[in-house]
Amino acid sequence: MRLIDTHTHLYQPNFDEDRDAAMERCFEAGIDTLLLPNIDLESVPRVLEMMDKWPNSCFGMMGLHPCHVLDGWETELESIRQVLDSPPPGKKFVAVGEIGMDLYWEKKHIEAQREAFRIQVGWAKERGLPIVIHVRDAWEELFNEMDSLNDDSLNGVFHCFTGGNVEAERALEYGGFMLGIGGVSTYKNGGLDKVLPSVPLESLILETDSPYLSPVPYRGKRNESSYLIHVANRLAEIKEVSLEEVASVTTSNAERMFGLQVKK
To answer: Which domain holds residue 104?
Structure first.
């Protein structure tokens, strides 16, 4: 049984002391592929380092996270684009991400977030890559952008999905999109137990978003990719299917979405 963590920040500094051990725990748990979303220019070398050290398991994305769309974002975005177009020899980036809109912390950069999102969606279309969307307290703003940008050349994932039935239906109506399901699905009041029964398993992929949003029984502690098994187990319970079916379908979904070489 194989699982793919489609969204993990295992490159972050709080793994510097035990990153190798964390990777071993992944492999022992059957998680053999990790997708690494970039967040800003500073994180680029860390993403590249993991891609180099674990070339058959770690695959990077390039993008500017909406919370990092600050003063001078245009210059930073251009530098990230140059990295996107110059991957390490023999490697490729599997998505543009993570990108999107976040109005949870403050709203003064909303117009900059809109513009940065539009630019990065353009990158994805030009390069035939999926987008990985972060959205927090900005569903309507994000949907307004997607309504004008979406077409047959665009696909991707609504990462760390925590919306309700309305948001799930609207997101999937765009056609080429899936929902990324993580630790929130294991929370008693997370709400996803009311949403996921009506979402086809073929529209779901699994993620941890580590080191954030640890699943039960690790809630409140540092999350890591090996904990993905708890997300998979919870999804199996909600969907009333076997763990093996969840693993098989979501892994196939991820391989198809991100153009990953199927592992035997």
So the answer is: 3-258
